[in-house]
Amino acid sequence: MKKLIYIAFIIPLLFSSCRKDPELVVNPGLTDAMARDSLYYLMRQWYYWYNQMPAVKKENYADPYQLLEAMKYKTLDKWSFVADYDEFVAEMQGEFVGHGIRVGLDDSKKARIAMIYSGSPLYKVNGVRRGWIVKSVNGFDIAKILSDHDATAYNNAFGESVAGVTNKFVFTKPDETDIEISSTKTSFTINSVLLYDTLHLSTGVTGHLVFESFISPSPSELAVAFKFFEENNIKDLILDLRYNSGGYLSVAQTLATEIGGKTLANSGSTFGVLSYNDKNQDQNYTYKFDKSVQVNISLTRLIVISSRLTASASEAVMNGLKPFMNVVSIGDTTSGKPVGMNGWEVGKKYFFWPITFKIVNKDNEGDYFNGIIPGKLVSDDITHDFNDRNELCLKEAIKYIETGTFSAKGSESFYRHKQYSEKPQWRNQGLLIR
Predict the structure, then answer these.
(1) pTM for this model (two decimals)
(2) What CATH code is assigned to 193-433?
(3) Contact of 244 with 314, CB cutoff 8 Å
(4) Where in the chain is the domain with CATH 2.30.42.10?
(5) What top-level class would CATH report for the domain 96-188?
């Protein structure tokens, strides 16, 4: 695995091309201005669109957060970010504080649980699942707030994302009875694999994997799931990436290899090629499928469930496997992020993640800034759980596997509604090199 983490503590930055992580040195005297200046020099050297940045005077900005927003090439860059060091490390290790839920509107404008982590007290203690209606939180009408697209009101209803905050929920369960639950936000480790199971179809055994993020704990979770798939001799795979906005490229490499199986793992074939700006061509790098991943499965087809939230590392998996197997997607057009970031630790206070490279597959295909268009548009059906065969996306995937065709055009209406997650905004759409 290629590692490229640069440590910036002093001004000016000393840039180096290094294949090993440098020794971490902490500068207790780091100021916001020093960090800002570090970012300024870093962007001029490493930013993928460095020659299209606006001209700025760095002294006009108080900290690196403000400077990055001023320096971005906003025509394309929606993703570069500065994060608090401790928050970033905790997030990518799977540490989470909150209720562990995603809430959205269904087509009848009812607020529902769209996703919930198994470590959430609401899941473990109270049995809350995807599809439950959220009638109110602390007396606030959540459906109205979502309909109004009022993020401020939503955040006020739920309170701060800190452990110990208690919220009073009123849910409507699938049996149409209401239940009131008081739940306290806690700290827990999230599960990036939300579900894995098998579907026994007329065409044989199909694996079904719902995968939510490419983070540090993911490889061990994926290993368990694919061992299960191997033991059950799956022929096809439905990979649900509808809420997966990315993460570490190394985990994407692992997942793609597990899907490709033993033959692809041992082939030495290219998964993705990284291209840097013209100042850093020596950093261009080819990711191969990982020979250390030995999963003995042989898939006929890969069916991907996607949405506008499907981004970055998820898109890299889809694009990277495209030259080697039949990859069919259903759902919504993906986010469109064929570029990624390197990370710079700054005095254990900040983490800088600017866009630094573009990624293409073996056939030099990429540049999907407008997203990857699905073969069939299907709404995200949050009225059903992921493994319910009446869930619209899963139902369409099963139809395609069994018949080789999609449902008739216009047989289902298509809708898209905004959803709200407790994750920090910078966590979305990451393709990260650590």
Answers:
(1) 0.91
(2) 3.90.226.10
(3) yes
(4) 96-188
(5) mainly beta
